[in-house]
Hints:
The chain is α/β, with parallel strands linked by helices.
Amino acid sequence: MSQDADSAAKDGTLTASRDGSILRLVLNRPARRNSLSPSMIALFIEALTSAAIDDSLRAIHIHGAGDDFCSGVDWVATNNRTGQRPRTGDLVRRVPHAANRIIELMHTIHLPVVASVRGIAAGLGCNLALAADFTVAADDAVFWEPFAARGFSPDSGSTWLLPRLMGLTQAKRMLLLGDKIGAAEAADWGLIYRAVAADDLNHATDELLTRLADGPTVALGLAKHAIHYGQHATLAQSMQQELFDVELSSRTADFKEGLAAFRERRTPRFHGR
């Protein structure tokens, strides 16, 4: 193996491919349980940023190669970039433009994001699953926030995401006690969308992606934004935001198609416009 090929295998990669109007992002570092190297994080950010302005896309799928989803950030690779001890404040300067940026993009992008999880989803990997709009997991998958076990405090949005998804008590169970949560329990708590048999994961995920990609893309994006806005707004503010969103969505071709389908008593054929 050449030096370049060996380096690529060690760093892993993120592969992006088009499947019609669906963007599929694969965390491809199975030998390290798809832990994210600095180069993979950069590719992840680039892919999501490009997707955010691509009008031909209607849904995003994120999954891991091999037996696991993602075991988090590869802190060894990240901290050994120069072979020297990082400067004081390195995390404060760097992480907002790295791991945190991925979570922000997933949260704000006006496209539905679906994650399918096998094996382990730990640390940033767990938070990727939480930040997705819908996460479908194999029934033997495990969700873990390992921060306390490693002796440092939570990051990458976990203290914001977990309480909103499952309540304070269960969030503390994961973040302070470091308990690992199985897929069925995660689904029961509302942490993820659905747990399915491992053999059914691909079918269940593709069925959901097709349903989302066939929807009124602009209206779905505005609804996603309004839901997230409402997490820190008053009722009056949320309703005001809804009015602006309705004003926009009612000007789309998909809105006209929805009305026509209703009048004609048929299933609408949305085109994401």
